[in-house]
Amino acid sequence: MLIGVDWGGTKIEAAALDTDGAILVRRRVDTPRSDYDGCLRVIADLVAQIEAGLGTSATVGVGLPGSLDPRTGIAKGASSTWLNGRRVEDDLRAALGRDVRTANDADCLAASEAADGAGRGHRVVFAVILGSGAGAGIAVDGRPHHGPNNGAGEWGHNPLPLPDVTETPGAACYCGRRGCLETWVSGPAFAREYAGHASLQLAQPVSPGPAEIVARMHAGDRLARLVWGRYVDRVARGLALVVNTLDPDVLVMGGGMSNVDDLYTDLPPRLADRVFSPVFHTPIVRAMHGDSSGVRGAAWLWR
Hints:
- This protein is of the alpha/beta class.
- The chain has helices at residues 36-54, 88-96, 105-116, 182-185, 187-202, 210-218, 222-245, 263-274, 293-299; strands at residues 2-7, 11-17, 23-30, 59-64, 67-68, 75-76, 101-104, 124-130, 134-140, 143-144, 250-254, 284-286.
- The strands form 3 sheets. It has a 5-stranded mixed β-sheet.
């Protein structure tokens, strides 16, 4: 049995898989935000509950909202900023009383989808997360690719390419820079842009979520359609850099915004217009395992 843990900024989820990849049990709790020790206790409790319920022990892999310095083991670049500067693997081993393998959560998504998901059969998989933040992972031959700095796939912290005058200098990002792709293509960024324009039109604050904005677009809301078009173009500008540089075999989309069906009809032609090559044949597909990909990929760290 393999246990995967997805240590997210809003929830911590653990699931037990058999060696064929079938999920035997899964549990989810809210993340104790800004409480590092509390997060460690939650993870240890979830693993203990699963093992007690199934009557057997397991290997444990953990997907992190950041990465580790490959030389020092110190966490860096985590959107859950209370992990940064911590020796996360050492602390997880102490909390669980066993060896633990970790990887960036987007790398776990890429590995899961490359192994037996939407990226299966493709050698180079670029898996994008468009959720509460924006990131990506790369899988080559079914395994996560990290690089010497353990920073491969940090797509969300490149600047938005080709910004117009309304997009500079861009919003402040938690990483300390301004105008990162994450501040433009995350789900909250999409919602903020619509809310800003709608509040001006109505002379009162409004704050619909992404799903409601998309529903308004389908109902004929012109502003929602305009904001969606701008959103898709920004995603296309960001991914054009990936295609021009890496030319992956497939783009797998994950995170909450990947559930918008319009993304798969509107993004391909926009991306084709933005890449250097006069041809664009790369498939853009939704993650097959959805919300389960993170925990599945974390469990697969022991395969």
